[in-house]
Amino acid sequence: MTDTARARKLADRIRVVVAETLERRIKDPRLGFVTITDTRLTGDLREATVFYTVYGDETERAASAAALESAKGVLRTEVGRQTGVRFTPSLTFVADAIPDTARHLDDLLVRARQQDAEVRSVAVGKSYAGDADPYRKPGEDDDLDDLDDADDDADSEDE
Fold first, then answer.
1. pLDDT > 70: what percent of the chain?
2. Residue 116 has what pLDDT?
3. d(CA 159, CA 151)
4. Residue 49 and residue 68 in contact, taking contact as beta carbons nearer than 8 Å
5. Longest C-alpha distance within the chain, in Å?
6. Local structure of 63: helix, strand or coil
7. Contact present, 14 and 89 (Cβ < 8 Å)
8. Residue 94: CA count within 13 A, CB half-sphere
């Protein structure tokens, strides 16, 4: 196993090299607006997983995925040349799920705001079922203690 700091640095370098190579050297027309978001390396530095996002619809995503797969050899060669490691890691491209997750969370937040607004609209003009403040105050506890003491004194006199 290698040092995790070394693996993290190499993963960051691979991310930068792949992004620059896609921007400058790869001229595939299928390649859409691709953003490299993250890269993760295995502990033995043999396999790199490159996460990417594509701006566009599902057909553009599929075309970009095919373009990345066809450019994998050129990208791996460039990574090996620019990193200078003994064994160049194999590259695996994975579509990043972060944008879909963020969109789903935004939808959930909108739904929660709507439900909160419905509850507020129902609560307008309503009153509490009991007292407005159901908790005892420190001064109220003393009144109850005085009544309990009076009951205890009356019980002791009866005996």
1. 86
2. 93
3. 13
4. no
5. 104
6. helix
7. yes
8. 12
Please give the Cα distance from 99 to 56 (Å, whole number): 12
pTM across the whole model:
0.64
Residues of the chain with pLDDT under 70: 1-2, 140-159
Residue 36 phi/psi, 5-degree rounding, is: -85, 115
* DSSP category for residue 71: T
Q: What angle do CA 151, 155, 157 make, to 5 degrees?
A: 120
Beta bridge partners of 122: none
Closest CA to 37 of 51, 49, 24: 51
Q: Could you tell me if 32 and 64 are in contact, meaning their C-beta atoms sit under 8 angstroms apart? A: yes
Residue among 43, 50, 51, 46 nearest 80 (CA): 46
> Alpha-carbon distance 85 to 46, whole Å?
10
CA distance 95 to 66: 12
DSSP reduced 3-state for 137? coil
